[in-house]
Amino acid sequence: MEILGHIKRVGRFLSGATAAEERRTVLANQRKAMHEVTQLGTRLVKGRTPQGVMGAQGGLLGSIQPEVRNVRNGVIGIIGTANPYGLVVEKGRRPGQKPPPADALVRWIEVKMGVSTEDAKKISHPVRWKIAKKGTAGAHMFEKTLEEDWAEFQTIFDRYGVTLSRELNR
Q: I need a surface site. Which of 6, 41, 164, 166 has the fewest CB within 10 A?
């Protein structure tokens, strides 16, 4: 699961001796804006991410990372996780699917129910089948961040647009 933003150049750059310098200026401002947006977005997504049994040290919360990449006509910003559990937490599980893997729930049952590993293994079967039958609600932390905080992201992009305009009109 990831949030993906993309800035690309619109229109033509001025030609001549300063064109290369202008391109560098535009790209530098795009990277700065996207870096600021992805840092803010990462904090906001993590704030909406349920803390699992590992807390903030690891697990899903620790795997959410920002990245800014250059592409042909600009930059893209990505906030995502490589943890396959991220999609389950984001979207939830529909009822009627197969149960989650047994070993995935043992530690969670130990922490949430305060039982030993041995007891958690015994309890895991009915818990897995209840999840399979009823499903789970998604946290929608990536979706909510994009929808609810877009105005903040746009403000950052606008600020860098004004900066860029000033730099190009010197």
A: 166
